[in-house]
Amino acid sequence: MNSQKSVNPGSVSLVTLVLPIFFESLFRMLVSSIDTFMLSSYAQEAVAGVGMVSQYMFFIQLLFNIVCIGAGIVLAQYLGAERHQEAGLIAQAGAVMSVVLAVIVTVLVLSGSSWLLSLYPLEPKVHQYAWQYFSIFGGLGSVFIAFNMFQATLLRTYGYTRDTMYISIIANLLNVLGNSLALYGWFGLPVTGVAGVAASSVFSQAAAVVMTRYRIKAHRDIVFRAEGWRTIPTSIYRKILEIGLPSAGEALSYNVAQIVIMAMVTTLGTYAMSSQVYAQTLVRFVFVASMAIGNGAQIKTGYYMGMKKPEEAYKRVYLYQFAGTLISISLVLLLNMFKQPLIGIFTKVKEIADITYNMLFVSFYVETGRSFNLITIPALKGAGDVQFPVMVGIISMWGLGAFGAWLLGLHLGLGMIGIWLAVGTDETIRGIIMLFRWKSKRWMSKGIV
């Protein structure tokens, strides 16, 4: 049955876009924290192994974001210009690219995960759990992850963010149920541990693909056909890649740097690895608001560029940035006020708790800088300005983030505090540069339509 009401994407307010994205992201973070808590009751080695592999899972999702970001930005500008037939071709091309990329990732993960993990000095159990999770979720689940991400991008760009919110909530609840069956042996089922948790994640992604496809078909204004994909002009693929590759390049560089930093953390031992996982789990609740505002800012900037109203985007992004930074600082303050009972949920090991306490205090510095990047960079990308964030990002992430983590954390012996100080310096300096880029208005000449 088709939807009786269509949305004019150009007229959708930021609040309408952002609130469902915020609650969807918040719920996803909550479920991720529940996953960590459930694994901590199973084995600390499972937390460390899955936590380490999560960097690679995020990396895989960023690869898929090459298509999602590129298609989403191009699509938003075409919708702003009311060129709906071209928008349909972009959706088709994005779907094809997502599936092809996912198949390549599946082959690489299944054939190379064991070799990759052997490069780390991991305890045997940590290695085993990391391999199980990565092979099942990263390998077998990649096609579902990729197509789910693309379809969700399509719905959001058309303004149907509530659909993606409800689907995410249902899928994540299915994931929690599956985890419970895998770890607690409900109904007399065998305890399958980390392998079962990974299989549960794959199932939840597959369910999300089906639900998202149903909602796309329900909205008459979304042009997304399966037939005719063989005749898509190569210029459409080229346009998505011209935006998607450099746009996702900034995020890809960031995650590779984080993988290198995580490798440094592994040399500090399992306690440091667990502390990193717990601290990251908690601070995700801090930047979720800025991330949601950034997603909305990217879509709105694309609309305004398509409508030839860049000055409107210029003024509004400053308001979005102020709100996001204020919210981030307030949430970090709350997190530090209640960090003792919060950390106590995950671990009773004093050494792990002490390290995590100190990392959360440093998060004031980290999250203030991160709020600049999570809002201003997506706005620049939405305008089509994708080269500058990549160039600055690579220099900052590696020169200040990764090198700084080695210098402060390992060479000078500051441990996890030094590593987080380096990450905060990267986020802050890079964010300030991006704000100056927005102020320069050079992005106004980067429109696609």
What do you see in this structure?
With 449 residues, this protein is mostly helical. 83% of the residues lie in helices and 0% in strands. It is built from 14 helices and no strands. α1 packs antiparallel against α2 and α2 packs parallel to α9. It is globular, with a radius of gyration of 21 Å. The two termini are 33 Å apart. The mean pLDDT is 86.
Notable features of this structure?
449 residues
Please describe the topology of this protein.
Layout: H1 14-42, H2 44-80, H3 84-117, H4 124-140, H5 142-157, H6 161-184, H7 193-218, H8 234-266, H9 270-306, H10 310-337, H11 339-346, H12 350-383, H13 387-411, H14 415-440
Helix pairs in contact: 1-2, 1-6, 1-9, 2-3, 2-4, 2-5, 2-8, 2-9, 3-4, 3-5, 4-7, 5-6, 5-7, 6-7, 8-13, 9-10, 9-12, 10-12, 11-12, 12-14, 13-14
Chain-averaged pLDDT: 86
Helix proportion = over 70%
Please indicate the percent range of residues in DSSP E strands (runs of 2 or more): under 5%
Instruction: Give the biggest sheet.
Output: none
Structural class label = mainly alpha
> How far is it from the N-terminal to the C-terminal residue, by CA?
33 Å
Order of helices and strands: HHHHHHHHHHHHHH
Global geometry = globular
Number of H/I helices: 14
Cα Rg: 21 Å
* Number of beta strands: 0
Low-confidence stretches: none
Condensed summary:
This protein is mainly alpha-helical and 449 residues long. It has helices at 14-42, 44-80, 84-117, 124-140, 142-157, 161-184, 193-218, 234-266, 270-306, 310-337, 339-346, 350-383, 387-411, 415-440. The radius of gyration is 21 Å and the shape is globular.
